[in-house]
UniProtKB/TrEMBL annotation:
This is Dienelactone hydrolase domain-containing protein. Residues 18-226 form the Dienelactone hydrolase domain. It comes from Cryobacterium melibiosiphilum. It comes from the Bacteria. GO terms for molecular function: hydrolase activity. InterPro entries: AB_hydrolase_fold, Dienelactn_hydro, Dienelactone_hydrolase-like. It holds the Pfam family DLH.
Length: 230
């Protein structure tokens, strides 16, 4: 992007030598406190971690959860060019710190992007937490979830909520069927009794502690499997 050498990042680096990294992609609300907390948590687990500020071109706002009309205005300013630049800036920074393998994990809006990244960018693994837009592109130039599933380049773990109207069961089943024909080690996990946004912020009414614990355990195992040195 003209005039920018790098994108703004919130980062955390573990103590000692780390050979793996994680990019965290935020929800539609912006780079909120729960996202920052996750960046620190992942670094504490041994990963060089960076979260790109995807709204930095519009003063880097953080929107109160639930004020979707306001957040949607910021969401709609995002472009394929800008998103690619921001994610690749995070990727380059993490690799410059010594990471040999890098994963992407995204939540909601960021989950949509994590799946797209697994299909189009040079990453080693990706995790999507309840990313929607399964049948149609969220932005021009960004593959729908189903289309991205069909062309995965990296192992991908999709974590979804059974009571999320944005990710209907029929679409998730179609993704599972597509994955039976892929050579990547990818899968879809659905928690039947939870709603969209159940995992990131423990202070929200929709937070589901048991499912969140299981989702993060699965994510931890997935990242350890695909980010370990060969």
């Amino acid at each position: 992007m003209p005039g920018l050498a790098v994108s703004p990042l919130t980062v955390s680096v573990p103590a000692g030598i780390a050979r793996a990294g994680v990019i965290v992609l935020h929800e539609v609300w912006g780079l909120s406190a729960p996202v920052t907390a996750l960046v620190v948590r992942l670094a504490d687990c041994g990963c060089i971690t960076a979260a790109p500020h995807l709204y930095h071109r519009i003063a880097d706002p953080v929107v109160t959860d639930g004020k979707f009309t306001q957040a949607r205005r910021y969401h709609d300013t995002l472009t394929t060019e800008g998103l690619t630049f921001d994610i690749e800036s995070a990727l380059a920074w993490i690799r410059a710190q010594g990471a040999q393998k890098v994963a992407v994990i995204g939540f909601s809006m960021g989950g949509t992007l994590a799946l797209w990244a697994a299909a189009t960018l040079h990453i080693d693994a990706a995790v999507t937490c309840y990313g929607a837009s399964l049948t149609s592109p969220r932005w021009p130039g960004i593959l729908s979830g189903i289309d991205a599933t069909g062309v995965l380049k990296a192992p991908w773990l999709g974590i979804y909520a059974g009571k999320d109207t944005g990710t209907p069961a029929r679409d998730l089943q179609q993704m599972r069927e597509i994955l039976t024909h892929t050579t990547t080690q990818s899968s879809v996990v659905v928690y039947p009794e939870v709603r969209h946004g159940f995992a990131l912020d423990p202070d929200l009414p929709r937070h589901a502690a048991d499912e969140t614990a299981d989702a993060f355990a699965r994510t931890s195992l997935f990242l350890k499997t695909h980010l370990r040195e060969t």
